[in-house]
Amino acid sequence: MRWEDQKDARHIYLEGELDHEACEVISTAFHETVAQAKGAVVVHLHRVPFVSSKGIWLLLEARSRLKREGRQLLVRGLGPHVRKTFETVGLFKAAPEWDA
Fold first, then answer.
1. For residue 68, how many other CB atoms are within 10 A of its CB?
2. pLDDT at 96 over 90
């Protein structure tokens, strides 16, 4: 995981499978990075071929926190498998801003 602040938002770049094990490893750093952001957060999944239910939960937790603070979490770069997973679980209905 790496991140950079740009003028519009903090951009977080994830790589590899976002499965249960990976989420356990990055969870604390991910949430700290989100919490320290000044405005919106954009999570880039271009290099993430798979997202498990734990990965979805990680993203939804961050979205919920930011929403309570009047900020936004966006997800970009969904590959075909990840997009299909998000569609199957109805994630675009819960977070329509992610379907871009």
1. 8
2. no
Could you tell me the two tokens for 5?
A: 């602040």
pTM over the 0.70 mark: yes
Token duo for residue 26 = 């990055």
The whole-angstrom distance between residue 30's C-alpha and the CA centroid of its chain comes to 9
Domain that holds residue 31: 2-98
CATH of the domain at 55: 3.30.750.24
- Edge to edge, what strands does the sheet with 73-76 contain? 2-5, 9-15, 40-47, 73-76
* 89's tokens: 């679980």
Strands in the chain per DSSP E: 2-5, 9-15, 40-47, 73-76
